[in-house]
Write a structure and sequence with these properties.
globular, single chain, 76% helix
Length: 189
């Protein structure tokens, strides 16, 4: 059961979203490298310290759903039914994330990411962190009975599946193909 947010939490969430939306708008209008943190704070009508209380870096403004994606992956593992197979659960969650990231209007965002070394490096470190969190959730699941190496490998495969499918002409078909390989790897682990 989800506990409703209190007024303070709703205000914080609204401020965070306003900052992220403002940043993305400025980045897309002017270019990522042309916009500074102070520009974003001024346009969002918040103090720079307020911006940094919500986002650790300028790059984090672009990947504002980073923590949510990471939590969704680990919850997909930990919240599944004891008899529910792992790989289809991971595939469904990765598919939902790919759908979100390939929705209308996202091409311009990924073009911006591709054009910025700082954003590409941030995205790579984010994916590695997501893979480690997912691996930790897999290792912690007593019903899986796989080695740490197997769990880390499958976690990396799942995170790479997201990146590869997101870039494919047909993301769904790409995920189907990738997850057949992931499932085969999991079975032999």
């Amino acid at each position: 059961m989800t506990v409703p947010m209190g007024r303070r939490e709703r205000k914080k969430a609204a401020t965070r979203q306003k900052i992220a939306d403002t940043a993305m708008q400025l980045f897309l209008e002017r270019g990522y490298d042309e916009v500074g943190i102070r520009d974003v704070a001024a346009e969002a009508d918040v103090a720079v310290t307020t911006l940094f209380s919500h986002f650790a870096s300028k790059e984090a403004l672009v990947f504002e759903q980073d923590a949510d994606f990471e939590q969704r992956l680990t919850r997909a593992v930990s919240d599944r039914a004891p008899d529910e197979p792992l790989i289809p659960v991971l595939r469904r969650e990765i598919h939902a994330m790919v759908l979100h990231c390939t929705a209308d209007g996202t091409a311009q965002i990924y073009r911006m990411i591709d054009e910025s070394r700082a954003l590409r490096e941030y995205e790579e470190s984010m994916r590695l962190r997501h893979a480690e969190s997912l691996a930790a959730a897999l290792v912690a699941d007593p019903g899986l009975g796989r080695s740490v190496t197997a769990c880390r490998t499958i976690a990396r495969f799942a995170i790479d599946a997201y990146a590869l499918a997101r870039e494919a002409d047909d993301p769904g078909a790409a995920l189907d193909e990738i997850f057949r390989m992931v499932e085969a790897a999991w079975e032999v682990a």
